Amino acid sequence: MLTKELSLDETLMALSDPTRRAILKRLSSGEARVTELAQPFSMSLNAVSKHIRVLERAHLVRRRRDGREHLLSINPEPLDEVANWIVTQRRLWTARLDALDELLKAEDRAASKASKKKGEKHER
Amino acid sequence: MLTKELSLDETLMALSDPTRRAILKRLSSGEARVTELAQPFSMSLNAVSKHIRVLERAHLVRRRRDGREHLLSINPEPLDEVANWIVTQRRLWTARLDALDELLKAEDRAASKASKKKGEKHER
DNA sequence: ACATTATTCAACCACTTGGTTGAGTATAAT
DNA sequence: ATTATACTCAACCAAGTGGTTGAATAATGT
Q1: What is A8-75's CATH number?
Q2: A52, A37 in Cβ contact below 8 A?
Q3: Angstrom distance (rounded) from CA A118 to CA A73
Q4: C1'-nearest nucleotide to the CA of B13
Q5: Which of A76, A46, A50, A80 is closest to A62 using CA atoms?
Q6: Whether A74 and B97 lie within 8 Å, measured CB to CB
Q7: Strand D: which bases are under 7 Å from protein Cβ?
Q8: pLDDT by position in tens, chain A (length 124)
Q9: Chain C: bases < 7 Å from a protein Cβ
Q10: Ranges of each domain in chain A
């Protein structure tokens, strides 16, 4: 599994910045150098360099040096962890909400049976 | 659709804190008051109150007042946006990586055919 | 050898975050 | 009416973020 200290905290934090997400998107079409990555943005090269370091810290990108060029590539592994957390949580939440929903529907049926009036509005 | 300004930035940022994720987890088993939510943590009530506000700002929880009690509940909607982004991106990334992988395998086959020497090392 | 290119490092800045404490505002209980 | 409870608001603080500029390092081109 090789899962070396993948922190949900750091991954989510790294992903929460639009510039960094754009960098990742760019990297999805293949390796790129720092300057290439920086080019589309209006900020300084140094700023982008810092963003990259954040992504690296979260293990979302890998760095490979070739001479003076640093070639960045994507590492999708941490995404799995996030995806995992999300689907797990969402299942819990919606399960609970679905149960509530069922309950409400049941009550609705009971209520409409009791009142026999059409056109009555429900709350929410 | 009702999607009122759901920001990926804010959602991911809100999720990137362990306390907040714990709060959400707690809320998956139903509504809770602020004090209830704060109870398991070692920090002050005010700190938790702030965390809740962050979650609210990201539309991950909703607040309903009943007298002096504020009842918090979960809203799973923003999670969809995140999940969506993740699966989309990951598909792109892995597609690309799989293609690369295929390429490398093909080259490996070609190389071993060409050199016919065992024990040769590949780079990285 | 010298200049250019690719990149990081270091210091700085304004702003945000995650926490604190202390006071304020409703609502509920006695 | 007083006190207790549930909560927020406001001010503060240390540490972190996202950006800047200026210099350092290291590899390449002339």
Answers
A1: 1.10.10.10
A2: yes
A3: 61
A4: C17
A5: A76
A6: yes
A7: 5-10, 17-22, 26-28
A8: 554 556 899 999 999 999 999 999 999 999 999 999 999 999 999 999 999 999 999 999 999 999 999 999 999 999 989 999 998 998 888 876 666 666 666 656 666 655 544 444 443 3
A9: 5-10, 17-22, 26-28
A10: 8-75, 77-114
